[in-house]
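Handout, section 4.2: multi-component inputs.
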Amino acid sequence: MAPEAIGLLTVLGLVVVATLYSLSRRRDDFADDERGLPASLRGARLVHAEETFRSVVRRLVARLDRAYEVAGELVLVEFKTRRADVAYMADVIELSVQRVALQDERQVRVSKTAWVITQNSDTGKRVPHRVTLLSTEEVEALRHRYLEVQAGAGRAPALARSTNQCLHCAHRSACERKADPFSQGRLQ
Amino acid sequence: MVQSHDRASGASNTDARVVSASEIARLAFCERQIRLDVLRGRRTSEHQRAARQRGDAAHRGFYEESKRLAERSAKRGKCFISTLALGESPETHALRQFRDLYLRRRPWGRAFIGAYYRFSPIACDVLAASPRLLLVTRWLLRLLAAAAGVAVRMRLRKDCSHGT
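Output:
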């Protein structure tokens, strides 16, 4: 084989390898964007991302992370960074308010099942958690309770369930419950 | 300490205020903290500020991913064969539900969806140029959609009975 032909084949081979490499990288990027998503949402149509919705009737506003369209209804996704791979009640409440605001503003059906994607702040690993959302009536009751607590009305405001939260609270010195920072969250 | 005159004022004066999801979510952590924020002004500890910074940085990354996914989703919607053949009809809706409830939940199904979206623009071009082929495709898709509708109803009944 002539040296020119060998040279041409080598160049062609390099071009093919470079193209395949770039295509494989592109696929990796796409797969990476769906990191931590549950199987049911992989490849689903992302309808809303980082959008704010308002319920004028119920006086609520919510900014949602993502909403996917699955089987004719929207499924909400909330992203959280934390040390423990768990979904809290606060996530359920936040997503429930998002659901009510989105339903009221857009008049669309939003699933009562949503997902909290937790990203471990130490390892970066993402884990999906399926949660069942609260009803509209429960959301309205919570809104009323929030305003009650702010106004100092109704029953006395409840203390944090976990005393570990008190360790990092800026109001610790003024609160009736004081946690000893050296006692692993035990109450004083 | 919650004062008695505070209790008497009630929440009615502020009832018209728009409340955000993140504000209401704070009820799950500590109601006392919400009240102390009102009485003493909102305060954050060093630990809370550090956690928020970490969260904000990770959230920016998540948002960038969301933007790329939304772009891909927008491109996809334009080349769906059934939308071309049947329009936004109940049949198209049934086929979409079948895709989401059956195909997307299995690895081979997701591979099929990926391949379908890759080749559907070419198929759409061919169908758009040939009315007879489009007519045949329309009838075939109607048959498929009828079968898909039955399968979807079965799955939804099953999901409901499992409380999902």
